[in-house]
Amino acid sequence: MSEIVPLLEARNVTMRFGGVTAVDDVSLVLGEVELRCLIGPNGAGKSTFFKTLTGQLNPTEGRIKLRGQDVTGLLPNQIARLGVGIKTQIPNVFNGLTAYENVLVAAQRGRSAAMAKAMVEKTLARLRLEPVARRQVGQLAHGQRQWVEIATVLAQEPDLILLDEPAAGMTHEEVERTAELIKEINRTQALVVVEHDMQFIRMIAQTVTVFNQGKVLMEDHVDAVLADQRVRDVYIGKAAA
Amino acid sequence: MKFNSAWAGFIAVLIAGLVVLFAVPQIVSLFGIVQMTVFVAMAMYALSQGFLWGFGGIMCFGQASFLGLGAYAYAITAINLGDTSWGMLAGVAVPAIFALLLGYFMFYGRISDAYIGVITLTVSVILFQLINSTSGAQYHIGQAELGGFNGIPSVPTLNMPGDVSNVLSPTGIWYVSMALLIIVYALLRLALASRFGRVVVAIRENETRAMLLGYDARLYKLLSFTISAAIAGLAGCIYDNWGGFISPTIFGLAMSAEVIIFVLVGGLGTLIGPILGGVGLQYVMNLAGTQHKVDPNLGLGVVLVAFVLLVPQGVVPVIRDKAMQLFIRRGAKAARIQETSP
């Protein structure tokens, strides 16, 4: 029997910008169809770590493997084609195009025209974006633009989905829907979710990895993490104080 | 609905183009036909810039490089080989290959947008200086003397493919030029409606997102740049056929600046806008050229400033939006009437 190859394996990833070490020797292993939450104070290096996973940044040190294949140094478009999708912290959408066109650009890759169209309609329905399908995304509310971005990611059916603050700026109702959606996606795909909203984390989380000052502070079940005094100190405690 | 109205517009433009194609020789004098041919050349040139800038989001400040390379490649090939069909082929291929090489280094070298403007501008200046300094019999390509600042006189005009003795009349050249404009317009429209075109526009909107969705933005930009250069080269061939003469001023800064104004005035982000902008402004400039009080370029500058201040979207988008508003208001009114009627 060979060893089970994890979906994502980041080993000793370090990202330095001049004298600043934004990500410091981070290792993270994610299994197939796993759901992982990343939490940590602002500037802890979560988004930078995401950027090394998607190829937007080339890590200064360390290796990143997808199902055993070394992808360190590949370009974002190459990594995307290996089945990694990301919703970035600040929505990256095609503002001048309609919601429908946004999702179509994503869905058309590797599909016939008819299949792409079917996928767009399915995805828009899944995210309840049909009412705004023909509207320019630049004119939509922040929450809706985030949904459009998530729709573009889902339309490509990636095996690994990275969500950077998917609930930011959403209403309570939208947050609950996002949590439901994440659980639904997680039935077939692996996710890594960065979030600040602790209620949201409680809704979805199983395993939580805590970042602090570019390092992994701890990694455990959500209850253990939220009960941990160190986590409270660096993050929740300060926020409450 | 929007899809249908877009295609209706496309068909309408094609029909209008065909009407112009066949009507002009019937109603315009021979001198007028020759003038119209240069309008077509400028429209084609503006179309090349309008596609690259308005859809590819790439601002080329030296589009005259490709216009000039096309014109010179046509002239040199036609003089050497006799048959102008090879000239047309060279006039499209040479600028396209040049753009492919230049674009490869710019886009794969991840040069930022501002520097793409600077580099393309510089390239056009270099080409101008290079061709400008080729006076003397020692500078020749085959039988074609480059002629330096004086340029190449008596460039052969189009002949029937394969039959050098059968040279087209100005009316024949008009038919070919206008037909080419219609064909290039139609091909661009179809390309933009294809999955290739969707990705090109998506990259204009957000390059990061396009990359994160698995599209190699560098490749798509390189292809748009090359297509644009090929179209500009074709415009250069038509330009040669209008005047039968080519000089280095075609590489000049004025030519690169003019086409930007054509696109801005006509409407950035449309294809028909640059065509109308090219024709309209070239017409105005020709008129201005017949009087000797004001420099035509000064007039063009005033037009640019006026448009940037008053109609920044350009003519075609403004008309389109007004028509759309009218259409929607009428539609809403009709719906209200339907609702209230028993």
Spans of chain A with pLDDT under 50 lasting ≥5 residues?
none
- How much of the sequence of chain B is in beta strands? under 5%
Q: Which CATH architecture of the largest domain in chain B?
A: Orthogonal Bundle
The computed structural class of chain A is alpha/beta
Strand order in the sheet with the most strands of chain A: 6-7-8-3-9-10
Average pLDDT reading of chain A: 91
Q: Measured on Cα atoms, how large is the radius of gyration of chain B?
A: 21 Å
Q: Kindly give the count of domains of chain B.
A: 2
Query: How many β-strands of chain B, per DSSP?
Result: 4
Distance between the termini of chain A: 52 Å
User: In oligomeric terms, what are we looking at?
Assistant: heterodimer
Instruction: Sketch the topology of chain B as an H/E string, one letter per element.
Output: HHHHHEEEEHHHHHHHH
Strand content bin of chain A: 25-35%
Order of helices and strands of chain A: EEEHEEHEHHHEHEHEEHH
Biggest interface between chains: A-B, 27 and 19 residues
Describe this structure in words.
- The complex is a heterodimer of chains A (241) and B (342).
- Chain A has 241 residues and is α/β, with parallel strands linked by helices.
- Chain A contains 9 helices and 10 strands.
- Chain A has a 6-stranded mixed β-sheet with strand order 6-7-8-3-9-10, sandwiched between helices.
- The longest helix of chain A is centred in the middle third of the chain and has 14 residues.
- Chain A starts with 7 loop residues before the first strand and ends with a helix.
- The model of chain A has no long low-confidence stretch (mean pLDDT 91).
- By secondary structure, chain B is mainly alpha-helical.
- Chain B folds into 2 domains: 290 residues, ABC transporter involved in vitamin B12 uptake, BtuC (Orthogonal Bundle); 30 residues.
- A two-stranded antiparallel sheet of chain B has the order 1-2. A two-stranded antiparallel sheet of chain B has the order 3-4.
- The mean pLDDT of chain B is 91.
